[in-house]
Amino acid sequence: MKPAKLSLQAFLMSCLVAGWGLVYVGRIKWAIWVAAFMYTGVVLLGVSGLSASPVGLYVLFGFIVTVKLASAIVSAVLARRYNGPPDVPRKRFHALYVGVLIVITFVLMEVLRGPLMGFKNYYIPTGSMSPTVSVGDYIVTDLKPGTPQVGDIVVYRWNGTEAIKRVAGVGGDTLAIVNGELIRNGENLGLFHAPADRVEGPASMTLAPVKVEPGHVYLLGDNRYNSNDSRFMGQVAVEDVVGKVTGIWFSEDRSRIGTRFP
């Protein structure tokens, strides 16, 4: 006789949505506890700031996979032993359960991403920060880094888009570029993270002294010769700085995976 519940179906359902396979086999309370445990763990990792780094992101992914896999295995075992009605719970409850978890996921990852999750991932499509951050890199950004500091790689909003550059100066600083070297408040910072072969052309070699306005940052790309930064677009308000790039969590170049930035 055909079993009332299919083990493979229960396993796959829990892999897709936390605890869904347990709902399938009638263990609704167990399903709710599994979902609550997973989302609580995700929020705690976010609030603590642990997930806003490549290693922390791996821990977050590992935690989610472990919870889902464990519940999937339990669901599959319970499905094999199930001897109740095949149509319990109703399809309407399945839709409600999945819908509620989709809403919770959306709220965490979009509406409350900043205060609760504290991180955001980006794909890099341009080479303005190459070779530090290159085309094909997937970066993780801390959305709660505090005041931008000189040397930070940041994500910022400009002209309706988001991009990344390095902070060369903060409010009150006086900056200049002489022979390709950055001078900040009279201190020579050398090429300031730019490789020598990326410092070419008049705009890369010379910058007349400029004062950074209060509440603003002056941004430069590490790929100085091919970067639309504050030399061309002007200074960026601190309120338009989205977050600090903490590292590369994935890349088309496998050797770059896990790279961390101070």
Verbal overview:
This protein is α+β, with helices and mostly antiparallel strands. The chain has two domains: 7-117; 119-256, Umud Fragment, subunit A. It is 37% helix and 24% strand. The protein has helices at 7-16, 20-24, 28-47, 54-81, 91-111, 113-117, 202-205, 230-233, and strands at 119-123, 137-142, 153-158, 161-170, 174-178, 181-184, 187-188, 206-211, 216-220, 236-237, 241-251. The strands form two sheets. The protein has a seven-stranded antiparallel sheet with strand order 1-2-11-3-4-9-10. A hairpin with a 2-residue loop joins strand 6 and strand 7 (187-188). Helix 1 (7-16) runs antiparallel to helix 4 and helix 3 (28-47) packs antiparallel against helix 4 (54-81). 34% of the residues are buried. It is an enzyme of class 3 (hydrolase).
Concise description?
This protein is an alpha+beta fold. Helices cover 37% and strands 24% of the residues. It contains eight helices and eleven strands.
Top-tier CATH class of the largest domain: Mainly Beta
Overall SS class: alpha+beta
Poorly predicted spans = none
Q: Just name the CATH architecture of the largest domain.
A: Ribbon
- Order of adjacent strands in the largest pleated sheet: 1-2-11-3-4-9-10
Number of domains as seen in the coordinates: 2
The CATH topology assignment of the largest domain is Umud Fragment, subunit A
Please give the share of residues in helix. 25-40%
Largest sheet: 7 strands, antiparallel
Shape by Cα distribution: elongated
Can you tell me the CATH superfamily of the largest domain? Answer: Umud Fragment, subunit A
What is the number of helical segments per DSSP (H or I, 4+ residues)?
8
Strand content: 15-25%
Estimated radius of gyration: 25 Å
SSE succession: HHHHHHEEEEEEEHEEHEE
